Input
Amino acid sequence: MQVLKAVITAAAPNQNTLPLQRLVDRNGEEKTALQLIVEETLSAGVEEIGVVIQPGDEENYRQAAGSSIGALRFLHQDHPRGYADALLRAESFCGDDPFLHLVGDHLYLSASQTSCASQLVAMACQHECSVSAVQSTREHRLPYFGIVGGNSIPRHEGLYDVRSVVEKPTPTLAEQELITPGLRSGHYLGYFGMHVLTPAVIECLHEVMNDPSHERPSLSDAAAKLVSRGKYLAYQLRGERYNIGYQYGVLIAQLAIGLSGRDRDYLLTELVELLAKRAEGNPIATAEQSTSSEGVDR
Output
């Protein structure tokens, strides 16, 4: 099994501009969120990337892609019919091939020398099946993620056999159906925003799109059907996901990236000074007050 194609979904209403946000990477280079997501994707050996966008967004995305533009193909979701429909816009692009899927409003930070995408692709190729990346997620974050219930696989740390999937469950439903043995109380396996999916998911996506009981079908709805179509695993990667669609999401992602990179000491110094000023009851320096120090070497 080889994973040479990827799909990035970025057409959701009110979220289509998130991949255009600018951040600073671990090396101190300014990049768009799209560039960071594409770099993550290419690190796993992917050669072609389909980006699902709204009509009219292509020029902005071309500019935001930077030097990676040659690997991208833009796929349009003409009407906002939801997540499942967005993935189906890539049906002809993927054909009968397995594909890596990432969402356009998440950034990823590996806790090892191997990128999150590479970890996931390696696991999927080893087991030759669909594998969704998951992360231990606290109960208060249930409204933001698809949640997986499963059983750990012996002798495979962080790997689970998926038995159920529910999109943004209530705490009551999660406690009844989505408890995963081995996790701390009040924690669940939440989607990481990254999956390796086999062609079997396409049929599942079509089924949920044709099911009138689903108002806006999601990938979680299709994945719930995938459970009965063969082996489907969840893998707890060594890394973290950062949803830049949250309030302060871009700021938190930027701090996490910065604190793991070249400018760690500089950021820590600035944060300590900021907190010290607040503790002393001094007002935060205004933009005009800080202008004089902008040219000072770090």
Summary: Confidence is low (pLDDT under 50) at residues 286-298. The chain is about 35% helix and 25% strand. Residues 111 and 239 are 5 Å apart (CA to CA). Residues 264-280 form the longest helix (17 residues).
